[in-house]
Amino acid sequence: MARPTRRGTAAAAACWLAVVAAVLAVSSAAAAGKKYRAVFNFGDSLVDAGNLVTEGIPDYLATARPPYGQTYFGYPTGRCSDGRLLIDFIAQDLGLPLLPPSKAKNATFAQGANFAITGATALDTEFFEKRGLGKTVWNSGSLFTQIQWLRDIKPSLCHNDQECKDFFAKSLFVVGEFGGNDYNAPLFAGKDLGEAYNLMPHVVQGISDGVEQLIAEGAKDLIVPGVMPSGCFPVYLTMYKEPKEGYGSRSGCLKRFNTFSWVHNSMLKRALEKLRAKHPGVRIIYGDYFTPVVQFLLHPEKQPPRACCGAPGTGPYNFNLTAKCGEPGATACADPKTHWSWDGIHLTEAAYGHIARGWLHGPFADQPIVL
């Protein structure tokens, strides 16, 4: 059998993701979108739809410059991707409009709001400051801060506690992912992975506590995502060098970092099981980011852990800390659908769309959002 060329492999990958995009573009017959009156989303840069830029665009913020947003919107929106995010696909599949950033001026939140903001953590800033990690946390709004933002807009959604509980009972709550930025605090400070492991029980407990607060507000349907396999991302592959045996033989990912992500997800699943037992009238879904990202790398038309938008750095990952996507020296690939990694840290629209469908209809959730 002839060995596939790089061009052939890229074309096959493009074809595969194009099919995924086409399927996502078709409205689900069951659209069960009528089931939910609204969607409320919490999280970090993976699902931030512009909260970080509602007060203006900071000069340092490369993610608010072209080519971000090029695929769907045609201009940067504050989303850290070439187009739509996972939460955008979820809203559209459910027949709802794209969720407005909760900080947007003159926005209506009758059908939901997006509280996510770039840099968000599960734990509050004070937690990191007490551990000498305050300078490495860019905490624009922790999970608990975002929940308070929800409480702040409640008067525009409902008029009394019972009305609010009824409204939230007919809404979908997407809680995360959270944890990535918490763990980056020690890692980006140059500390060993063991320091990140020490944070893990606190992070998982923080997520669990946040879910309980939302249940107390009246949430009945929640999806709580785990973290992605961090060892597969160009940012980590560029920052950390391992001996040959430290990389997955098929995936090329950093094994010890993927093991770390897997352990977090296992702990989170156990915490969610406890919450289900405690709140039998509430549907709590686990959303899987880990499996689909690994599958991107192991798919027959293998997509390497290479950023679509970036600049040559150390290794074959097209990621350079001094020339990140949106900064001078960085360029975007011709067709983002041929990549799962957009900028070495976040995913492409095509990848987000594929994962969103797996949460909505299976198999990337322990039960589909749409039943």
Describe this structure in words.
GO terms for molecular function: hydrolase activity, acting on ester bonds. Residues 1-25 form the signal peptide. This is Esterase. InterPro entries: GDSL, SGNH_hydro_sf, SGNH_plant_lipase-like. The protein is α/β, with parallel strands linked by helices and 371 residues long. The protein has a domain at 35-229 and 257-291 and 352-361: SGNH hydrolase (Rossmann fold, 3-Layer(aba) Sandwich). Helices cover 37% and strands 7% of the residues. It has 11 helices and 7 strands. The chain has helices spanning 6-25, 86-93, 125-130, 143-153, 161-169, 180-187, 193-217, 234-239, 255-278, 290-298, 349-361; strands at 38-42, 112-114, 171-175, 221-225, 283-287, 309-310, 331-332. It has a 5-stranded parallel sheet. A two-stranded antiparallel sheet has the order 6-7. Helix 2 links the parallel strand 1 and strand 2. Helix 7 (193-217) runs parallel beside helix 9 (255-278). The radius of gyration is 20 Å and the shape is globular. The termini are far apart. Mean pLDDT is 90; it is low at 1-34.
